[in-house]
Amino acid sequence: MNHEPVFIVDGARTPFLKARNAPGPFAAADLAVQAGRALLARQPFAPEQLDEVILGCAAPAPDEVNIGRVVALRLGCGPRVPGWTVMRNCASGMQALDSAIANIRGARSQLVLAGGVDALSRAPLLFSDAFVRWLSGWYAASGPLGRAQALARLKLSYLAPVIGLLKGLTDPVAGLSMGQTAENLAWRFGIDREDMDAFAVHSHARVAAGQDAGHYGEIVPLVGADGKVYAADDGLRRDSSTERLAKLRPVFDKRYGSITAGNSSQVTDGAAWLILAGAEAVARHGLTPLGRIVDSQWAGLDPAQMGLGPVHAATPILQRHGLGLNDLDAWEINEAFAAQVLACLRAWQDAGYCRDELGLDAALGELDAARLNLDGGAIALGHPVGASGARIVLHLLQVLRRLKTDDAPRRGMAAICIGGGQGGAMLVEA
Prior knowledge:
By secondary structure, the chain is α+β, with helices and mostly antiparallel strands. It has helices spanning 28-41, 67-74, 92-105, 129-140, 143-152, 164-168, 178-189, 193-212, 242-245, 279-285, 309-320, 338-349, 351-358, 378-381, 385-403; strands at residues 6-13, 17-18, 52-56, 83-86, 111-119, 125-126, 162-163, 170-171, 176-177, 222-223, 229-230, 268-277, 291-300, 330-333, 411-418, 422-429. Helix 1 packs across helix 2, helix 3 (92-105) crosses helix 15 and helix 7 runs parallel beside helix 12 (338-349).
């Protein structure tokens, strides 16, 4: 196997903008283009010198189906630079990075722009099957009498829209929404509402502290068509408290559940990019790498327990490198739900789970909370599905570089759960 190092040269992301029950100000391609332009403008190479552009996106618009190619052309990469799109649900952005690694190690590429994007506020409203069948009959009707008969068969209930985002966030095999899978984990590991709400408050507090300390230097501002500037993530609630969150009603299991909008990730629009390079490209362009991606892993598990994906993906990496949970300087685990992250932490502490599900001889132990999501996570920042996998890798690198006090490398793990019952993880070194 080719273990050529794959370097992270630079990265940038947009502010994450919370969906507010209406289409947001930017299409997905607009988000990716604005972040990509700012990132490429500060590089010593031209966009045409990229070997390829890989973009993860879970919900591209109908006019941006191969959004990776659309964005590559809009970024000025020219017609000869291939652009393509990958989709692995919540880890689409991480899959883009992994695809770039594979191509660099396979000598097909040396310099790759890879990342992820989604504009979830623009997820479509769909016609119901019943209305589509009625429309088919309407178009087939001939003459005034035929149309009158077709019109008489139209029911108002046919006009109720189908919310595309809700369908996308429901597993078609397990028949469960992502929130219901989080309820499963809360029940399995005895995680109560107070635990979830406290975790959510902590996420908001850490994001607020991170913003105040200038720890989000990877963000480049967005400029709307009207000239309005969007400079920072806007889902943060600085006044978040357990008292406020306790007033929210469960969303996914209204009678017995504990998962609320307040202890779940937010529906969000955003994009994140990284520039990955092999040693040859680093030397050719005189690049100064920020760090490197050391290892990556994908895992599958029961879709009804999908939130435990980070455990199943990160553990094999730890084993390959002879590492314990706290041998790493920092962790980024995407906060799809507070219950989901807490369940991951408890699974590693559960000897039975580690034995039966991971094949370990004993529990892996307790992850030091001071190493996890140092600047908060998706509960406060939002979770634009296609972008989150790239965001956590990029921000982990920023955290590791901030923690450096000497020449010794700093290592961290970025891990994410994936709808459909998968997990992804990457070991990163600064």
